[in-house]
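Recap from last week: sequence in, structure out.
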Amino acid sequence: MRALRRRAAGRAQPKLRYGALEIDPAARTVLRAGAPVDLSAREFAVLLALLEARPQVLSRAQIEARLYNFDNVLESNAIEVHVHHLRRKLGEGVVRTVRGLGYYAPADPA
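Predicted structure tokens:
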């Protein structure tokens, strides 16, 4: 399944590069300028969803649908908290906000 998703996204390689970030979806690891970045499972899922959709804006509801199933109880600001943590750990330029619409990863990393 992972290989099919990579091919559909135009990626033949298992690792994804985005500026100084190197993301390995199979190992669920992130390196920033060669140094490991400790992300929670949800933070990693939000980052991967935004990078796979880039430069498209994903609404909070779209991100929630990718992260949570019907059995999960979701706090009203859960996505905002994950985005805040990603910005703190990866820098401000990785996740951008479009007020009233959602979040996106720019096509060209900062």
